Amino acid sequence: MPDILQDLPINAPIDRVFEAVSCPAGLDQWWTKTSSGQPVEDTDYSLGFGPGYDWQARVTHIVPNREFELTMTVADQDWIDTRVAFSLAARGDGTWLRFRHTGWPSANEHFRISSHCWAMYLRVLRRWLEHGERVAYDDRLDV
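Below the sequence we write its predicted structure tokens.
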């Protein structure tokens, strides 16, 4: 099975990065249009990406300020049962983020598009945390 893997430094404290990747208010700044849920293992998240894209995920792993993982439960077919995960490590005054989206059924067109989109979304995450730059949801893949 193919996986999407990204590593990047973020010049922000690890607790801020963790909050941005695990809490709905943070996710809405860089990934989702609207989200809800609690960063607690075995709880469900609602992940809204606009009309017709009301997805769901379950928190399947969490170590505060270190690791957060969602398993997709309601989404496009290719995303079902895939895992979106973040591992964090302190690096100087900042954070090293290791991202992975694992369990894809094949390296099809949707996988290729999602690989590009994740790189773009992670760039928006970093710009928001480092510079306070806010990007409207509809513009996030164009920055």
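The two ends are 30 Å apart (CA to CA).
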